[in-house]
Design a protein that fits this description.
The protein is of the alpha+beta class and 164 residues long. The protein has a single domain, classed as Holliday junction resolvase RusA (60s Ribosomal Protein L30, Chain: A). Helices cover 21% and strands 26% of the residues. It is built from two helices and seven strands; from the N terminus they run ββββαβαββ. Strands 1-7-5-6 form a four-stranded mixed sheet, with helices on one face. Strands 3-2-4 form a three-stranded antiparallel sheet, with no helix packed on it. Helix 1 packs across helix 2. It is globular and about 45 Å long.
Amino acid sequence: MPVILKVRGLPVPQGSMTCVGAGVTIRPGMKPKANHNVQPSNKEALYAWRNQIAAACRVAKAKYPSIGWIGHDPVAVTCTFTLERPMTVTRDWPSVPPDLDKLARAILDGLTAGEIWNDDGQCVVLNLVKAYPDTAPFCPFPEDVLDVPGVTIRLSDVDANRLI
């Protein structure tokens, strides 16, 4: 039985890093010095988003204590990101930034912070979908598309022969 987490809020990608320190911003191609600090370029929004994911993990663990949290076992993760459709957009799918791989990084790190698993390296299957609220019928799990921006995260056990 999968564990399903629903987190409402604007999904935030985890991607570009900025190096700052000693009053200097390091630009691409420049080498940071020992007194420089590397941090996400969208640090505040990213950390708030990952904290929301970690909080959803804590709620799920309290609600379902008998699930036997994952420990070191392999895990399959499916994330359905619901993005707000801009008023002028007529395309069916959000085939524009943010990139799915950057959205996934934030989710996996948020699951680690929420102590769902010991390390995000335990994720051996990763399925990702970006959708608008009205594209739900075309998604693998239509019920996972939210009516507002956010993400639905499905965590499943993986056994030797099949995904559960």
